Amino acid sequence: MENNYKMVAKTLYGFEPLLAKELKNLGAIDVKEGVRNVSFLGDKGFMYKANLGLRTAIKILKPIQTFRIDSEEDLYKKIYAMDWPAYLDNKGTLAIDATVHSSRFTHSKFIALKTKDAIVDLFRNTTGFRPSVDLDFPDLRINVHIEDTFCTISLDSSGQSLHKRGYKTATNIAPINEVLAAGMLLMSGWDGLSDFMDPMCGSGTILIEAAMIACNIPPNLNKKEFGFEKWKDWDVDLFEKIEASLLSRIRGFEHKIIGYDKAPSAVHKAIDNIENANLTEFIQVEHQDFFQTEKNTEGHLHMVFNPPYGERLELLNLEEFYKDIGNTLKQNYPGTQAWFIVSNMDAIKSVGLRPSRKIKMFNGKLESRFLKYEIYEGTKKTHKLK
User: Fold this and answer.
1) How confident is the model at residue 385 (pLDDT cuts 50, 70, 90)?
2) Which helix H or strand E contains 132, and what residues bound it?
3) Is 64 in a helix, a strand, or coil?
4) Listed residue (137, 144, 136) closest to 107, CA to CA
5) Measured between alpha carbons, how far is 24 from 323 in angstroms, rounded to an integer?
6) Residue 201 and which of 138, 224, 305, 325 are 20 to 30 A apart at CA?
7) How confident is the model over 287-332, as pLDDT tens digits?
8) 44 to each of 14, 58, 233, 266, how far by Cα in Å?
9) Residue 200's Cα: distance from chain center in Å?
10) pLDDT surpasses 60 at 382
11) Is 310 helix (H, G, I), strand (E, B) or coil?
């Protein structure tokens, strides 16, 4: 059996515990939470499994070298000394991503450029040919991470970010990131054991992620290509075996997943994306204004949504809009656990209900709160007496 090695899964702020739990459930060893990342041990097969099966990971990196550097020239020399022909051919393509947290090194683009220069110079000087840069679909994507004077060089096994699941061809204004949607659902405790609703579903991301969680479908099943598929040690038989084992764990779903949106264009886009994800049998989308609706399902309803924000709210009266959300929930949706994300902190006051939880997260660069509201059958008092 192939030896285990260290890998790092990158994620969004606040999602580290979710990702650590996902990794343990998949079978990772020595799982350790960091800041916006979780490190773990696994073999090549597990790297394939992590890319296919993790809902809250953005990238899976495989560190191949760490060293201290005291200047850009020092970085160049140490990169030049590495065994790049083991990973890349002289006529191949590469892309470099650099992340820098250092007072000595401040420009990530310059660090990426220095790294690229060292690699192409090595090939040119030893073979007469040099790899070229391809930012979109390179044969090898390299990640350079500098923390103070400590440098880690990793291979990016994911290629394009894992939030690009491959099912979304149609989006509306400011669509929610798929990893953010999955993380919100997992944080809300969504387990597929009740009916689910997204009353402002936009292009359907939350609905699709909810269905994939409910049915235990690997989130990146529709992804066109992973970075590791161009690596020299790519093992298609092993990948297909891992994929088949994840597919064998898919389960049925006995409840309803419902999406509403008041924009007909959003409804069409959601239906297209749901079809692309092969989830039409599980999700139903309707052209409805949430404020004109009432709960039409029996038993507990689990609700997660991303109300319009920023530029999408310009035509709305913010105070009134959030007040309407609170009133609709309170009057028309008894027996519902409602979660939604808000980036305008004043909006929380307008809801008129007291959230039982407030979780800090980021929607893109916007600091936000993920709020939980329990809407009881009857009054809260009678609920407690039951």
Assistant:
1) very low
2) strand 132-133
3) strand
4) 144
5) 41
6) 224
7) 999 999 999 998 999 999 999 875 555 567 888 999 999 999 999 9
8) 27, 18, 9, 40
9) 20
10) no
11) helix
